[in-house]
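Weekly structure sync - notes
Attendees: PM, LS, DV (DV joined late)
Agenda: review two folding runs queued last week.

Item 1: First target. Sequence and structure tokens pasted below for the record.
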Amino acid sequence: MVRTQIQLSEEQKKKLKKIAAERGVSIAELIRQGVDRILEAYGRPERGEMLQRAAAAAGRFRSGETSVAKDHDRHLDRAFSQ
């Protein structure tokens, strides 16, 4: 591990200390977990981009079925049981 120095507000330190005690971990571990979450989220597309991708894909594929909207549960069940 690499040692890094950060500055926290008094309020941040107080809240982190309480959470760390409740979870039985160190403040440093909480900070590492927070950094991991930020790094995981950084690689994911933003919500707006995901909505644009979904909208662009809608209607682009044909199943040949004419009752998909009406009988979607039956079609889904059949697809998962294959």
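Item 2: Second target, run right after the first with the same settings.
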Amino acid sequence: MITSHYRDLEVWQLAMRLAHAAYDCSNLFPPIERYVLLPQLRRAALSVPSNIAEGQGRAHTGEFLSFLSTARGSLQELETDLIFAHEREYLSDDQLASPMELADHVSRKLSRLRQKLTAEKPRPTRR
């Protein structure tokens, strides 16, 4: 497999930075969002590195690929939540820019890792 520990994966490290950035952004939300958007955004943000970590800990490459797909879905959910917060004027253009750039970087790293794992995945033999 790619590495012996998920904390060594650059994509996990970036996803953690993104989760922290998203949490920082959510601190800027008005109190009315305490029960809906804030926890939704935070769950999505933490789900990205969590799924990378859980997938890396699985025994089979196919399982890791599945968890990376879930991480990608959570990443897109997070981006949507950030864009929505921006459209509601909870975040300025400047406040949105950094987490969105990080999200794009995480997305590209996830794609590269998936490609590498897919190339390494053993193909079933035909009888």
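Discussion on item 2: The chain has a mean pLDDT of 94.
Action: LS to circulate a short write-up before next sync.
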